[in-house]
Amino acid sequence: MKTVFSAMRPTGRLHLGHLVGALENWVALQKDYHCIFGIVDWHALMGEYEDSSQISENIIEMAIDWVACGIDPEKSILFVQSQVPEHLELAMILSCLTPLGWLERNPTYKEQLREITTRDLQTYAFLGYPVLQAADILLYKATAVPIGEDQLPHLELTREIARRFNHLYKKELFPDCKALLTKTPRLLGIDNRKMSKSYQNAINLSDPEATVRKKTTSMITDPKRIKLADPGHPEICNVYSYYQVFAKQRQQEVYEWCTGAQKGCTDCKKILSEHLLAFLNPIREKREELGRHKNRIREILDDGAKKAQAIARETMRQVREVVFK
User: Fold this and answer.
1) What pTM was computed for the model?
2) Which CATH number fits domain 209-287: 1.10.1040.10, 1.10.240.10, 3.40.228.10, 2.60.120.1440?
3) Predicted pLDDT of residue 318
4) CA distances, 288 to each of 79, 186, 229 (Å)
């Protein structure tokens, strides 16, 4: 079976964007690929170094979310990045051959420097995080990486780094990994920006019912619809985009009542909140059960780290062989 690698940073609770943009895809991939999923705490530290006190708890909560959503430890490797030291070792070697200009042109790097003003991200590590990301993928010689369209520049940089390594050391050690794009368009946050833990605009998988309702009713709707009698424009309304994902059976009905000014935005959002709760309740129930057995979650991660390191050690043996020949 071909190998898939993907990862998430434990910087907070997972949200609906993670579910439809990644986790549902991961669950489906388990049938046809050898899947390796990493909780990348070194990446989390790059942005949370001033206060890293929540990372350990976030690791466990993230693993709980993964299993609750259908990631099966019997089929996939689940592990914590820092428990496999070869990640940093390969990142160090790759950083030696990665041109600075490649990193400075990274569009996501520029966006986060612009958008995130509550933390100082002007650091060597944050600039170089795509190199560590490349190491994460190449360490397991992954041939496919499930990502959203916004992450395509990162994967292309990983391919460039792999090609440069192979060219410099005259050895086709690392494969050219391809993108497995999610079928769901990027889900925006309740404020119409990219859904992000950093922006505090997300509906989380672990949010209580009251919080889901409150966040849904605060969503920004059609800016052109001022009065109740005004016809709406679903094609530009973020609330309607949620119906297209979480209540497909009602999207035509919603389109008609919106364009015909038959319901107001407040009622539309209340109805949406009930559909979101129906979607999230099975996951929440599984989370609650898993939360009562956190030692089992730790055992899953420890076992996964052993399996991941066995692969990583062999890769690094081959890397050292060509670098220090």
Assistant:
1) 0.91
2) 1.10.240.10
3) 98
4) 21, 28, 44
